[in-house]
Amino acid sequence: MANPVQTQPAPRRWSLGRLGRVAWPYLLLLPTVALLFIFTIYPLLQGIVMSFFTRGIVVVPQVESTHPVFVGLDNYTHLLGDKNFQVALLKTIGFVVVAVPLQLAVSLALAVLLAPQSRVNAFVRTIVFFPSMISMLIVGVIWAWLFGRNSGLINYVLSLFGIGAVPWLEDELLAQIAVVIVWVWGGAGFNMMVLIAGLTAIPSDLYEAAAIDNTSRWRQFTRITVPLLQPSIVVVVVLGIIEAFKVYELVVSLTTGGPGRATVYLIQNIYETAFRTVNQAGAAAAQSVVLFIILMVLTILQLRFARKRS
Amino acid sequence: MTQTQSPWRYVGIAIVLLLFALPPIWLFLSSLKSQSEIFQWPPSLWPQAPTLQSYYDTFSRANFLLYFQNSAVVAVLSAVLAVTISVMAGYALAKFRFKGDTVFFLLIMSALMVPLQIVLIPVFLVLRDLGLLNTLAGLIIAPAATPSGVFLMRQYILTIPDSLLEAARIDKTPEWRILLRIIVPLALPAIGTLLAFNLVYRWNDYLWPFLIITEQEKWTVQLALANSVGRFGIDWPRLLSISVMSVLPMLVMFIALQKTLMNGLMAGAAKE
Q1: Looking at the partner chain, which of B96, B120, B123 has a beta carbon nearest the beta carbon of A270?
Q2: Which of A14, A202, A206, A253 gets the most CB atoms within 10 Å of its CB?
Q3: Tell me, what DSSP letter sits at residue B183?
Q4: Which pLDDT belongs to residue A6?
Q5: With 80 as the cut, is the pLDDT of residue A108 above it?
Q6: What is the DSSP letter of B43?
Q7: Does the distance separating the beta carbons of B98 and A26 come in below 8 Å?
Q8: How far apart are alpha carbons B76 and A243 in whole angstroms?
């Protein structure tokens, strides 16, 4: 304890209170940083290391074949000849290329349709947004029920027009189309809200001026709305691409990857490689690293693009 | 935007309403049908003899109440934990200058680029080493740190004037009291939004439970759901009733907090 009657000023000491003040922000950060380190950063590094080894998921000392063996880039070169991986990768890329623009178009149409303030629009916005509140598993269940070949509402409606039972989830191509439709349906409300927020920020006098000049609605849309909405569109596209590359949960309840392997996308393939085949943890890790690199490159490219435009 | 409400607009709105309202309503209506009516062709649009038989069967046969309880425990505790540590970290990043503050900020944000999907195996191993496999504790703790949550809180706390904190410090108010008595009450709107989001996110989450839980007594609703599909022959009456019930809490919350949820979204468009 400092003596109050000291004649000379005491050197500043590391009292408990001062230490506490310095440590305080670090203490506040500790839980978040520790959890992120344990459950995100360390696993990412371990995954990268793992991709250079062959090993079982769990290394059992007594079982020789599960022991890690360094194989360099073998896991990666094997991916070049791995049919399942290649098909899953191509299917995922195809899914992204079809589903993301479609979702943007649908969300944009919804946003333009429902942006004006009115009671009806507010109600319909709520309905469109609702699928964002429920799990993709349920979204898959809802649509699996609608798509049912001999029990689904969709085929019933089609039959009213004389169209025979469509095997939505039993045909390879139709099943992939179904996954796209359902994914777009599930995410449209969220993206619509992002776009509406952007739309309301566009000054209305621009449209008024355009109306005075007799500019057509379509020209107003392409010349005013789309360019000024670009920041929101970038958000929708970037998040959409990242989400689309991770498509999985919806498939679990809609098609379980079938028919055959028609709707097995990357995540499911990684999971099956890891947990359903023996001692392929390294191969699964290599697939994860490939996906990680794709996502990183896309994120960086999109950020660059967005910055250049603004 | 100036907009005249042309008749085509109403046609469009009607079609949108049909496309988005009908699928969930159809699920609900079907869940009220009897075993025989459910597969009747052509399907009856309205249940001819509405019955809660499917619900009764689900509750009596499957341990559904238990799964519901597991989901509720996990969602609530996990959301509270996530919000608590997000407030702490957000406050530190918003109101303190300390060595490495930028590094910490970037480190936390960069974790956004690493979704669970690409670290499944290593996370599984970490959980195993920590003894968290097959525990609800694992489900609560492991996903608790959310970069988007930290970011949301930081942005909100930045708007709280520094003068309030300085005045409290001059009065020698201990730091923990400043956090609890000044920051938390003033950040309540953001805390509420974040809590609501986390509840939704945790309740709906499938991937974490899928990775952590194998014992059936510890299943969450989403796991029970996923396990009702994918086997040979789907038990539709059961699946439909489980689906409706698993959506109910979200529906109630959505009706109660609709504005918060739909507008709060904009603040943290970077959902997980």
Answers
A1: B120
A2: A253
A3: I
A4: 47
A5: yes
A6: P
A7: yes
A8: 25
